[in-house]
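User: I'm curious whether this sequence folds into something compact or stays loose and floppy. Could you predict its structure so I can see for myself?
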Amino acid sequence: MVIHLPGSASAGAPAPPAIDPGALTPRQIVAELDRYIVGQAAAKRAVAVALRNRLRRRQLPAELAQEVAPKNIIMIGPTGVGKTEIARRLARLAQAPFLKVEATRYTEVGYVGRDVESMIRDLTGLAVDMVREERFAEVRTRAEAQVEERLLNALLPQSAEAGTADRAEFQGTAARPSGAAPEARTAADGAPAEEARDSLQRTRDKLRQQLRAGLLEESLIEMEAPPPAALSQFRIFSGAGVEDMEVSLKDLLPGLMGGGRPRRRRMKISEARVQLLREEQERLIEPERVTREAIERTEQTGIVFIDEIDKIAGRERGHGPEVSREGVQRDILPIIEGTTVHTKHGMVRTDHILFIASGAFHVSKPSDLIPELQGRFPIRVELEALGRAEFVRILTEPRHALIRQYTALLETEGLRVEFTPDAVEAIAEVAHQVNERTENIGARRLHTVMEKLLDEISFEAPELAGKSQRIDAAYVHRMLSSIARDQDLSKYIL
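Assistant: Here's the prediction. I'll summarize afterward.
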């Protein structure tokens, strides 16, 4: 299981090269997963082949491609061995919409809870957000130029009409540029129009330089703010459950809502810049095109990870909490087989969405799922439990290894922490022992062990700025050995 913290691996480390998902071979996919996830070679190979098959299908003739079903996967293994992270990393490699859901969240139609179609609506919403952000990035340069002009218009209107609408209010650290008032008076006293325009342009250029230098970020200007969002949306309750369909009251009751008039308020330039940038980006993209591309991406490359599917496995007994287990399986079946789901963005077909299910299957087994659902998961992979050797690798090898995260966090306080190799071995041994004696939670045990190990150092770090701390096996044993030996304490502390 990978221990990941977003950001660069270390100061000065080169950025990873851009990856073309369409050019990745199964071997390259496995190699990329190896950078973040320790072990689990069989699971990596299975998801790599599944991803490559999707790329192969898109190169087939349209008629044949429609008949090629995705090779859905069931991952079997205890908690904390990397099931979720493998799927998440795969989605990032494929630059595909990815949704992780818990099977226990869903209930059979007629029971209180979420209906299974909501997972497709959520996935589509994520795809829309993904495509929209990509389009925002494409038009950001043009949008920033427009934002600069709008801020300049607010600070120094180009005409009397503009001045009435967007009069600047200067407060805070930035001062009014010298010469602005005399130039305005010159124009008012009847100076030639061309001279007045030149003076205005020179003042505008000065303000532009100050804006770009960040000298006016604390100045206050009056801008139009979007209308409050209260009562702008509500949810529809239907027999199938709560539908995630947003309806605008402004469209239903335009007279009551008053057309959603924006209001004017003072704000800092730094705040206005963020608001204006979003407005300009929204103007520069085509919402219909974004929606169409998002739906296509959902249908062709979407990945849904259904965790804890073992919790809904098992034959019906007619009473207790198991009463709707088989019903949930029957409801999930058409989604995985291929159906059309109605979302607020349009109709979405699920025929080629890749489903990856996972579960520990301690009590139940995959054969306890209904036969039809078993047939829709042709690939089954068993993940191995993690031991001491894997813990050592997890602590040191991944690009964002756990030890690297903690040393980076403490370096922000000016404290340099160094872990010796025998300390890493000792940490791995303690985590392995506690997993053996209590509940085996896999690599997640390393988090609890590291937090307990560094408890004193983390508390005192602000007073230790400029110093260094060396952590060896003796320090690890001193901090953890008594707790690790006491089984009762281990249950509650580690």
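Summary: The chain has three domains: 21-129+294-382, 139-290, 388-493. The longest helix spans residues 118-155.
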